[in-house]
Amino acid sequence: MSYLLYVSVSPQGDRSVSRNLANDFLDEYRTKNPDTKVVERDLAVKLVPHLDGETLGASYSPVENHTPSMAEKFKVRMDLINEFKGAKEILVSTPMWNWNVPSVFKAYIDQLIFPGVLGDGTPENSNSAKVTVIAAQGGSYAPGTPREGWDWLTGYLKQVFTQLGSKDVKIILSELNYAGWKPGMENLVGKKEASLAEAKKAIKSRV
Ligand SMILES: Cc1cc2nc3c(=O)[nH]c(=O)nc-3n(C[C@H](O)[C@H](O)[C@H](O)COP(=O)(O)O)c2cc1C
Fold this sequence. Notes:
By secondary structure, the chain is of the alpha/beta class. It is about 40% helix and about 15% strand. The protein is built from six helices and five strands; from the N terminus they run βαβααβαβαβα. A five-stranded parallel sheet has the order 2-1-3-4-5, with helices on both faces. The chain is globular and about 60 Å long. The structure holds flavin mononucleotide.
């Protein structure tokens, strides 16, 4: 079965900017690809466990040596990896939190990258699928802004998905979402709206 894997991160439900933009992507995608299933991995609903000692132990020891608890944790990891490996296209929606991804998304990435299985740079342990990341943030870190250089999300995610094997990673950003309600950012509402419109345009041409 051919599927697009949609990894969603924001816990903000209908109020989430990144989820709403991803829904635009999916509406368009479903119209253009009626035969492709969409599999959603919603990290806000089902938290991904951090790599703990048992998971790491299980990852580097023969299955016959696994305790029941190790086996259970290893299965969680391998299910995530196989779901990612099998996708023909990948869509991600995420907020920026503290200049990077929310920790649940980092936990997911840590589960996925498993040298010898996925993300070690070899063709057999890669998924070369197209990846679109839709990210939302409160501020702006664009060149010339006071906080230029504080963005540890976009470059990081580009590296992660390239290392997982993608030859086509695109980050679509909606910035300045704090404008309009955070004191001191009133004059940036126009720029926020322009960024949102730009993101919607980029989504349309990406699908
Ligand atoms: C815990 C937390 C941390 C945040 N950290 C940042 C940040 O470092 N930089 C930024 O520009 N916005 C930050 N924001 C604002 C969000 O990125 C912004 O509201 C964005 O729209 C959230 O995406 P969502 O609407 O899809 O949930 C933070 C918000 C929260 C709740």
